[in-house]
Design brief:
By secondary structure, the protein is mainly β. Helices cover 13% and strands 37% of the residues. The longest helix is centred in the N-terminal third of the chain and has 36 residues, at 2-37. The chain starts with a helix and ends with a strand. The structure holds alpha-D-galactopyranose. Alpha-D-galactopyranose binds at residues 107-108, 118, 143, 251, 291, 328, 330, 334, 354, 356.
Length: 392
């Protein structure tokens, strides 16, 4: 009888203990989930510019713990941390560790570039019978919006969204009429959205009050090894383009579109960058590597997959989707080891590559290229996605 009592007593204790353990497990699990994988945005002060403007940093984090950092100075993407095949998180974009470095002359690391990305020949174009003159900040040409383009201004925070499936930050900038020589007040927004499928969408919109030209892009330099002291030559690259835009010695389009067939510009099947870039080809010599706009296939389909990069050692894959007609593939040819990297080293030639989705360079002076003109009443809208994954 006593034995039976004791037995039922110990059974009760056992059940209570098990329940406690189960509860604890639940609580632990919950708090772990909260700590590690809740889609969220964190915000902090990043610095103050020489003109005494405050700069904010937004950290967009998804459920997988992947995160993207964006600062309001230049609308720049400063960090993209994503895992390799083993789950090791590394930063796959080139960037500095201080605002002052971003304010100094630099190769547009991570920037929202505008009002006109890439080159405009002789810093001049005409529109509706008017000739407009821009600052020549690249030899005889205008490059990436001029002396103080969108990459060097502080953007206003228009909207921050946190939802269970995505987080986003929308930045705005009003480029005044004749700023850097461009006509029309251009109200521009760029929205960075991080999704749970490890994709970063970049969405631009712009309206003007006078006919103008617009061509916007993001100028992130990728190195999928996660270590900017490595060269990108061990990356495989694939671009869905049958044609590219050949350029003259000052990197201005010659006006023709050339077939990639039987040339080192043929990335329709994936190519190892280190193999292709050493080809003797006049256009590679001109660019000291690749610094060309590819004419992306299937532009009539709109938003579509256009390019991929793969780094076999880490297993990281980057896929690009866009609605744009072109993409400048730039292999960091002008990085010359003079700029300091956060790891204590420097940014060497070919330590990063850019996939700059855009309209073709110098389009305002090239009647055969798709138009970059924006008129009042019309909305410029474009979307590009950088999607990260891994494969063996
Ligand atoms: C673009 C240009 C390059 C160079 C870089 C920035 O990709 O095409 O020629 O100016 O930007 O250094």
């Amino acid at each position: 009888m006593r034995l039976a009592k004791l037995n039922s007593f110990s059974i009760n204790i056992f059940i209570i203990l098990m329940l406690c353990l189960a509860c604890k497990k639940k609580i632990d699990h919950k708090s772990l989930k909260k700590q590690k994988s809740v889609m969220r945005i964190e915000k902090c002060y990043y610095g103050t510019t020489v003109d005494k403007e405050e700069v904010t940093l937004f950290k967009l984090i998804n459920e997988g713990g992947i995160y993207v950092e964006v600062i309001t100075f230049g609308g720049r993407v400063t960090t993209i941390k994503c895992p390799d095949l083993q789950g090791k998180m590394d930063n796959v974009v080139l960037g500095f560790d201080s605002l002052s470095q971003y304010e100094k002359k630099n190769p547009y690391f991570g920037a929202a570039v505008g009002r006109y990305v890439n080159r405009i020949a002789n810093g001049r174009f005409s529109l509706e019978g008017e000739v407009y003159t821009l600052a020549k900040n690249n030899g005889d040409n205008s490059l990436h919006g001029g002396l103080k383009g969108f990459d060097k201004v502080v953007w206003i925070v228009e909207e921050v969204k946190e939802t269970p499936s995505f987080v986003s930050v929308k930045l705005a900038y009003l480029s005044k009429d004749m700023e850097e020589g461009f006509p029309g007040n251009l109200q521009t927004t760029v929205t960075y959205t991080l999704n749970n499928d490890n994709s970063l969408n970049i969405h631009y919109e712009a309206i003007t009050d006078k006919t103008t030209i617009v061509n916007l892009t993001n100028h992130s330099y990728f190195n999928l090894s996660g270590d900017c002291s490595n060269s990108i030559l061990d990356h495989e690259v694939q671009i869905n383009a049958n044609k590219y835009v050949p350029v003259n010695k000052s990197l201005i389009p010659t006006g023709t579109l050339a077939s990639v067939e039987h040339t080192p510009f043929d990335f329709r099947a994936a190519q190892l960058l280190g193999d292709v870039i050493k080809n003797n080809h006049e256009q590679i010599e001109i660019g000291d590597g690749f610094d060309h706009c590819w004419v992306l296939n299937n532009v009539s389909k709109g938003y579509r997959s256009v390019a991929k990069a793969y780094h076999s050692l880490s297993g990281r894959v980057l896929e690009v989707l866009t609605d744009q007609p072109g993409m400048q593939f730039y292999t960091g040819n002008f990085l010359d080891g003079t700029l300091p990297a956060p790891n204590g080293g420097v940014f060497n030639k070919r330590s990063g590559f850019c996939f700059e989705t855009q309209h073709f360079p110098d389009a305002p002076n090239q009647p055969k290229f798709p138009s970059t003109t924006l008129v009042p009443g019309e909305k410029y809208r474009t979307k590009t996605t950088f999607k990260f994954s891994t494969k063996y």
